[in-house]
UniProtKB/TrEMBL annotation:
CDD domains: Era, KH-II_Era. Residues 59-62 are annotated as: G3. It comes from the Bacteria. This is GTPase Era. It comes from Roseicyclus elongatus DSM 19469. GO terms for molecular function: GTP binding; GTPase activity; ribosomal small subunit binding; small ribosomal subunit rRNA binding. The keyword Transport does not apply. Residues 204-281 form the KH type-2 domain. It is found in: Cytoplasm; Cell membrane. Residues 38-42 are annotated as: G2. InterPro entries: G_ERA_dom, GTP-bd, GTPase_Era-like, KH_dom-like_a/b, KH_dom_type_2, KH_sf_prok-type, P-loop_NTPase, Small_GTP-bd. An essential GTPase that binds both GDP and GTP, with rapid nucleotide exchange. Plays a role in 16S rRNA processing and 30S ribosomal subunit biogenesis and possibly also in cell cycle regulation and energy metabolism.
């Protein structure tokens, strides 16, 4: 029996639905999702099996015009994900169409992902009428010679099985890359930090989510089967710390509770989560913060 295995990079503008699609393909929440742009900061691998193929999906940060060092490192990580993959899937949003941002991605696609098989996935089809999709499909294929176009809703699951089947046969022949039961390739301490960052991003407004990072400092297994997890939230300013803590520590308490509940569900056991907020004006320029996030500090140059 021939087995296949390979990497599929999901790329696109921020908010296109890449992480939602990865989670759906894997059947578990491996990558965090919010309604805000620039949620994903590094490459996150999730593994799906279809027939005799093992498909390693690589979720990437959104592609946009970067301003800060962190933004540049994120965008570089996304393009590296595309260059390292066997197949690239470009996700765009049906209701937004061929935006300037999408055009900018198309302009770089040949140079950055040359030689890869490239498919288009028009996502969020639940938000538009059929004629819009027809027109957008034509417009996109006139702009770039995609090998295939898929009309999907990552959230509702429409069209996702077709995409998975196509990707399965597009994987190169070879032995599987991960054990059959493995669904993610990210250290648990990082998944835990990401879950907390998701709750922070959902709860905090404006620039604040973009000016903080979360790290798991320690993880202790307890005799009773529970885990004690200590995390630090780095913020850039004193004022941010105040907002994050909230009146009488209300805000941080609510965030911590939400993160803990999700961690407990993921791990299937009890978790004691302790969050500490530290003000660190220069964390965005510290190499160690980047390696903790899974990014290359030098990419930000
Ligand atoms: N209506 C609709 N919403 C969707 C669909 N897929 C994703 N979304 C929503 O779009 C928003 C962004 O989803 P994400 O998966 O975080 O997008 P992303 O591309 O990973 O974003 P970044 O990590 O910021 O680059 C979330 O609010 C999702 O619930 C879809 O098929 N239909
Ligand atoms: Mg994402």
């Amino acid at each position: 029996m021939t087995t296949r295995a390979g990497f599929v990079a999901l790329i696109g503008e921020p908010n296109a639905g890449k992480s939602t699609l990865l989670n759906r393909m894997v059947g578990a929440k491996v990558s965090i999702v919010t309604h805000k742009v620039q949620t994903t900061r590094a490459r996150i691998r999730g593994v799906a099996i279809e027939d005799h193929s093992q498909i390693v999906f690589v979720d990437t940060p959104g592609l946009f015009r970067p301003r800060r060092r962190l933004d540049r490192a994120m965008v570089a990580a996304a393009w590296t994900g595309a260059a390292d993959a066997d197949v690239v899937v470009l996700l765009i949003e049906a209701h937004r169409g061929k935006t300037e941002g999408v055009q900018a991605i198309l302009d770089s696609l040949t140079e950055k992902a040359g030689g890869r098989r490239i498919a288009l996935a028009i996502n969020k089809i639940d938000r538009v009428e059929a004629p819009v999709l027809l027109k957008l499909t034509e417009e996109m294929n006139a702009a770039y010679p995609f090998e295939e176009t898929f009309l999907i809703s990552a959230e509702k699951g429409y069209g996702v099985d077709d995409l998975r089947r196509w990707l399965a046969q597009a994987m190169p022949e070879g032995p599987w890359l991960y054990p059959e039961d493995q669904i993610a390739d990210l250290p648990m301490r990082m998944i835990a930090a990401e879950m907390t960052r998701e709750k922070l991003t959902l709860r905090l407004h404006q620039e604040l989510p973009y000016q903080l990072t979360v790290e798991t400092e320690s993880w202790q297994e307890r005799k009773d089967g529970s885990a004690r997890i200590d995390q630090v939230v780095y913020v850039a300013r004193d004022g941010h710390k105040g907002i994050l803590l909230g009146k009488g520590g209300e805000t941080i308490k609510a965030i911590s509770k939400a993160a803990r509940e999700e961690l407990e569900e993921f791990l299937g056991r009890k978790v004691h989560l302790f969050l500490q907020v530290k003000v660190r004006p220069n964390w965005l320029d510290e190499a160690e913060r980047y390696s903790e996030m899974g990014l290359d500090f030098r990419d930000g140059n």
